[in-house]
């Protein structure tokens, strides 16, 4: 929402009640923006990572040795490698469906990223506007008229402190949204690398295994499979 926020008002005829509510037009405008923006959803990053993990497991169906290595000695003793092999065998015929599911999850993450980008801009604009009101009020503070000037200065100073705290809160919110946005963008970049580069190359290497350089093709397919697993593991680590 890109509506212009109210500019600071002049304090030509200051009264205690007026000074105590200094900045109210801005605060109401910020509140209306927040209501219009609505609640932001969680982004669906966990769903995309789960979809990528299923995809990576499906690719390992033809590589039992890799599954055994991942399970470790204790996992093999408990039969976890057998369980993962069974899961991989069940998922492998569904590669196309798994990729579509991952694409749908990625679309949700992309939509959340757009919302978060807007939230960053909204919070930064609110912080800047609050700071403008604080600066304008600070300039007017020493020039308050005599008589009750001391008391009026105290009222305005207290109000300016409140606005400063609100500005700091808005800057903090903007920083949090930027962090979440960066996480979304990093996850989407990993997904695009898997979907657009690594997975097509893996399919090509797998289909070419019948040619004379079968050993080289198989090695390339295993390498790509490992790269996909590494991308998924990195994405999972960022979510923790």
Explained architecture:
- The protein has one domain.
- The protein is 80% helix and 0% strand.
- The radius of gyration is 29 Å and the shape is rod-shaped.
- It starts with 15 loop residues before the first helix and ends with a helix.
- The protein is mostly helical.
- It contains 8 helices and no strands.
Short description:
This protein is mostly helical and 240 residues long.
Total strand count, please? Answer: 0
SS strand fraction: under 5%
Low-confidence stretches: none
H/E topology pattern? HHHHHHHH
How many domain regions?
1
Largest sheet: none
Terminal residue distance = 32 Å
SS element count, helices: 8
Integer average pLDDT = 81
Radius of gyration: 29 Å
The coarse silhouette is: rod-shaped
Give the structural class: mainly alpha
Helix content: over 70%
Essential attributes:
rod-shaped; mainly alpha
Itemize the secondary structure elements and their pairings.
Elements: H1 16-20, H2 24-37, H3 45-59, H4 64-77, H5 80-91, H6 95-140, H7 149-207, H8 214-239
Helix pairs in contact: 2-6, 3-5, 3-6, 3-8, 4-5, 6-7, 7-8
